[in-house]
Amino acid sequence: MAERTVRRTKEWARWTLLGAAVVVLVVFLLAQRTQDVDVSYGQSPSQSGITEDDDVSLSDATVPSVPEMKEMIAADPVVRLPGSIARWDEQAVREVIGDSDVRILVAPPGLDKAERRRVMTVEADLEETVLTVVGTRSTGGLYVAVADRITGWRSQFATGDITGHLVRLISSLEKREDPELSSDFPWREPTGAELDAVAADLRTDGVHVADGATLERVPEESSAAAFPDEDALYVALPMQEFGEAVPRYGPALTRLFPDRPVVVMYGSWIEYHGPNATDFARLSATVFYAHFADRLSRYDYPQTNVLGVWLDRVTDVRYAGLFDRPLPYVPVDPLTVTLPALPWLFTACVVGFVALSFGPLSSRRGSLLQGPRARLAGLTALTIEVSGLTDERSDPSLTRGIGKLDAAREALESELPARQVRRLLDDAENELDDTARLLGRDAYRPRNYLQGRLR
Questions:
Q1: Largest separation between any pair of C-alpha atoms in the chain
Q2: Strand pairing partners for 237?
Q3: Which sequence ranges are marked TM in the entry (predicted)?
């Protein structure tokens, strides 16, 4: 009687451990679907943006009719329509064109949809290779040339230089290798008179607006949110002449106004100097121009609007924790704390199940080693090893396989016909085989994994 009680206790403990393992595994897999990453340090107060329907983005420029532009481009390989701002190194572009018949149509920025459609129609209708430039956005055929780093954005928006864009477009259309182009920007130190004029305005009201610049005002709320510690100084300059050295005011003004943020605009290009400039300047430029460069290249936004959106992106970066903002308090999530322990708990349950199964299986002189209980134990052990490797594609088949194993266990406990138990185990084996196939791991396919284990 005592021996029978011990045997029943072991049997109960064995299947309890297997049931617990299944429950733990299902909880772990379901938790993977609900986990996400939250990297926000707080809700940024910035709200502005550059929108498609913003009327300030359109200029007074217009373009001729399609037949007129066709005649112009047929007569001259380079046509610059009134108001166009894009410039390039003509020698570098001629070298990459070579003997090819490539024509370039340059239109001004800020065109409405109908005018842009007329420009694109010229490119589509002509048999020759036609590159169209609207503002500083360059297209040709199915290709659009875009800058992907700070040096390219600076040349494009500070001086209208699209040399790299045209070279890449022509090389792609003609199926040639891109030639190496210099990425050096033509900086120069500002003269004493230039620096004195700018510094005098900054000392008066913190803003210097040069002739030709379109900055009407500094957005005060956005500026205060972006630079809460010190009032920032702003210098607005028009787009600089292509091919001429550009005065670099930032470092010189930083020496005159230490510990003050200095923002210098060259057209739509914005330079930051001052506190945290080493880490912050490149990051803020990348965040802003990676998002808005395409619209800035096609439209004619005033510097007031461009500066406002840039300041909001700076605020977003600050709220992301760059400037040592303290982490907000986050209550402890029990699921997050216990989730790492679930695989170990699952392993312990399965090991316990296998250990308790060894006695009953071995006590029957190996007769059951070829039966359903052995297959159930082997397939359960397979789920242990495979569960840590599954992904979104293979999780469903693994979960279904575990469900079939659980049903087979209940069928054994209820002493259902052996045929039904074998069918459930066959279904589980098929699901686990699909799991291994989706993972590309032949070693975990049941027929390979169980070979040598059920002898």
A1: 109
A2: 266
A3: 12-31
